From TrEMBL:
HAMAP family xref list: PdxA (MF_00536)
Gene: pdxA
Protein name in UniProt: 4-hydroxythreonine-4-phosphate dehydrogenase
Organism: Pseudosulfitobacter koreensis
Source taxon at top rank: Bacteria
UniProt-annotated binding residues for a divalent metal cation: 163, 208, 263
Any one GO MF annotation of this record: 4-hydroxythreonine-4-phosphate dehydrogenase activity
Pathway the protein contributes to: Cofactor biosynthesis; pyridoxine 5'-phosphate biosynthesis; pyridoxine 5'-phosphate from D-erythrose 4-phosphate: step 4/5
Length: 328
């Protein structure tokens, strides 16, 4: 019997004034022989020389794929200018993400890969109440907690607080939040990354992980105790570790993922090591979602120079996770 064709990966268009349409077009050219996919958005936003085919349903994507980017049309309210977000298009950007989620949850697509959004443009243009996809997808899924992971061949990182202003981090960082983050990370490493016994490093919050209380008290007051408690429950943890010395090459050999305390503590090391190939994957959702690690890059939008590697990795990872064949 011929096996059923793999479901396609849905790609949300992201901010049309950014590089999202261009990297989706380049990803199609690179992946059309390997990965079933389709794009949701307004075809007028795609590069002018790109062959595309309008489809009515994701089931038509496989047939269209060799000839052009399969496009599920989503109408946008206003014209698009590269590099300048149009507030009138913010609603369309948000609705495309929700449409992609719906297609995955109704079994029409295998996974969602999101092109970058401009958070401020969505806030200003449509009162978007979420600081990023992660929090929006958590709400759409009705999940208790979604966790952001950035993954590359060299490193995986998770920020415990995500899009939180630095001055709010100490208040937002609680034992319950860190416990949940470690639990969801451990589960995601097992189920989505195929790691049987995940080793997780937990970063400290303060310089030198607090230096025994001399440079901050969170580590001695509760982070170390939580790590010890969770080790006793069977988690393979180490920490709290000083963040400045846990990312060099030999230190990285000791763990499968670093759980960090805030956004930049986690994202600076991975974007420095692997900006072109890092993938953002959301853990804790009832469906698969990946994204490139970079943003909308307004400064180069419309120039044709955007590097599609991170987008390609993100689509490939989503496809392999959906097939159950993603192994690190
Ligand atoms: N998943 C998402 O939706 C993400 C959205 N963002 C959003 O993107 C917007 C812009 O953020 P920035 O901090 O400026 O970061 P950015 O990643 O958009 O740009 C930073 C620098 O990297 C360059 N760059 C980024 N991607 C590139 C690519 N594929 N090829 C070549 N050069 C590339 C840009 O030209 C720029 O010089 C913000 O609104 C931010 O919140 C940022 C990260 C992820
Ligand atoms: N810096 C990563 C980032 O902002 C991506 O956030 P999200 O939109 O994936 O939640």
């Amino acid at each position: 019997m011929t096996p059923a064709p793999a479901l396609p990966v849905a790609i949300s268009c992201g901010e049309p004034a950014g590089i999202g349409p261009e990297i989706a077009a380049k990803a199609w050219a690179a992946l059309r022989g390997d990965v079933p996919l389709f794009w949701i958005g307004e075809p007028a936003h795609l590069p002018a020389d790109l062959p595309f085919l309008l489809i009515d349903t994701p089931a038509q994507a496989a047939e269209a794929l060799p000839r052009g980017l399969p496009v599920l049309h989503h109408a946008f309210a206003a014209p698009n200018t590269a590099g300048v977000a149009n507030p009138a298009n913010a609603r369309g950007v948000i609705d495309v993400i929700a449409r992609g989620v719906d297609l995955v949850r109704t079994g029409q697509a295998a996974a969602l890969c999101t092109a970058p959004i401009h958070k401020k443009a969505l806030q200003d243009g449509a009162g978007f109440a979420y600081p990023g996809h992660t929090e929006y997808l958590q709400a759409l899924a009705g999940a208790d907690r979604a966790v952001m992971m950035l993954a590359s061949e060299q490193l995986r990182v998770v920020p415990t607080t995500i899009h939180t202003a630095l001055s709010d981090v100490p208040r937002a960082l609680t034992p319950a939040l860190l416990r949940d983050t470690i639990r969801i990370t451990d589960d995601g490493l097992r189920r989505q990354f195929g790691i049987a016994q995940p080793r997780i490093a937990v970063a400290g919050l303060n310089p030198h992980a607090g230096e025994g209380g001399a440079m901050g008290r969170e580590e001695v007051d509760w982070i170390a105790a939580l790590v010890t408690e969770m080790i006793a429950e069977g988690y393979d943890l180490r920490g709290p570790l000083p963040a400045d010395t846990m990312f060099h090459a030999s230190a990285r050999m000791a763990y499968d993922c670093a759980v960090c305390m805030y956004h930049d503590q986690a994202l600076i090391p991975i974007k420095t090591l692997d900006f072109d190939r890092g993938v953002n994957v959301t853990l804790g959702l009832p469906f698969i979602r990946t994204s490139p690690d970079h943003g909308t890059a307004f400064d180069i939008a419309g120039t044709g120079v955007a590097n599609p590697s991170s987008m390609i990795e993100a689509i490939r990872m989503a496809h392999r996770m959906a097939q159950g064949t993603y192994r690190t």
